Sequence to fold (192 residues):
Amino acid sequence: MTLLILGLVIFLGVHSTRIVADGWRSATIARIGERPWKGAYALLSIVGFVLLVWGYGQARQLPGLWWSAPTGMRHVTSLLMLVSFVLLVAAYVPRNAIRARLHHPMVLAVKVWAFAHLLSNGTPADVLLFGAFLVWAILSFRAARQRDRAAQTVYAAGTTGGTVTTLVVGIVAWAVFAFWAHGLLIGVRPVG
Fold:
């Protein structure tokens, strides 16, 4: 569990600078430059991610189950994951109505992903991993919305083409991951 906790602290810590220390972040970027900041950010993110994946893999083998989800919960989780994939894609497809309306779809995708996995997984490692990401996503979304209000940010209106592209790519990505890649990468086949 130690590696998982260390990985979460590093990964989510790096990704929390805008939540807890936005002024310090801006001052540091001004002092050292954007490229060195991004380099350090990327390096620490990779280290944290590797540690949390490695630690989660080890922690999943430990005994203990806090709850066992009913069989039907797999369907709820699968549906929520479809929503999560569409939200994730919405963060990258330009001029889609989802991003225009929600403003921060990637953070919302993480929130839905974490919540969906908490519904179906009740080991201590699962609760720690997905619970930490859920708390982070809630705080990150709140902080991002506060920054938007302070800066009076206006998001571009969505177009039909951008929205349809977002939905199609999100659904296809979900299907590939649900039916094939999740089993290959995680070792659990949620669908099929």
